[in-house]
Description:
Layout: E1 2-4, E2 16-20, H1 28-44, E3 47-54, H2 57-61, H3 74-83, E4 88-93, H4 96-99, H5 103-112, E5 116-121, H6 135-141, E6 148-151, H7 154-158, H8 164-172, H9 176-183, E7 188-194, H10 199-202, E8 208-211, E9 223-231, E10 234-243, E11 254-259, E12 270-280, H11 288-306
Parallel strand pairs: 1-4, 2-3, 2-5, 3-4, 5-6
Antiparallel strand pairs: 7-8, 7-12, 8-11, 9-10, 9-12, 10-11
Helix pairs in contact: 8-9
Amino acid sequence: MKVYRSLEEFSSIENAIVTQGTFDGVHAAHQVILDKLKGIAKEQNGETVVITYDPHPRMVLFPDDHGLLLLNTLEEKIVLLEAQGIDHLLILPFTKEFSRLSSIDFIKNVLVRIGTKYLVIGYNHRFGKNREGSFTHLKEFAPNYGFEINEISEQDVDQISVSSTRIREALLNGEVAQAARFLGRPYQVSGMVVQGKQLGRTIGFPTANIQINDAHKLIPHDGVYAVWVLIGNQKFGGMLNIGNNPSIEGKGRSVEVNIFNFSETIYNQRISIEFVDKLRNEVKFNNLEALKTQLQCDKLQALEVLG
């Protein structure tokens, strides 16, 4: 997949089959659109193009909304779209100026410029200044600019019953297995391993403390989870804790994982976590021995969940 980070980098394609949107999560409903895109490209002997935006439009349109949480960082989204078999990804910088672009100017300055021959959109899709553009609007003007429109029907999307909002709600409730069903894959977070207090070692459960720097990346609800841990090209089972570690004074909120059958030092390495299922909520224990006993039970449960 070729990635372009501005319109200037993109040279017009003779037969571009295009869709556009934020694609946060690249979830099952998004995949319906992408499958349609690829199907048309195959029929028309064209090349697929996905247009997306950075930063997320809400960050620009509502800068005071600090509660925005996203399912993907931009780099994660690139990986996911490449895995979907897309030919070209055009990432347009979303600015205040861009947000004022009329729907007609978007058609002329973006869609026509990149060589759009077929545009695939989800039902009720809106675009342009104040979301003035619609399927009806596109259908009216598309023939004038030499491309056709295909709208994914409401039924095709609704039968999947998935949205980025529903996935966010599931994760914020700790329902990671439900989120995985919506996404079509386990939810994933990535971060750098940093040094912690190393108290886990003293009770036989050393943990890797994960520093996640993207403030808008959604972290699931506090609790203990069965997870897969991706380190380089290797995959390990593990159990992960998110929260304030109430049994350890002064610990503060953290994301830390006990990796099964693993003893290497991985400070300053980037690792990824795939959430499989929630084991329990955080509990405050009276002493470290009680915590150790519970962790032994958690590990057995995690191993069972991971199979």
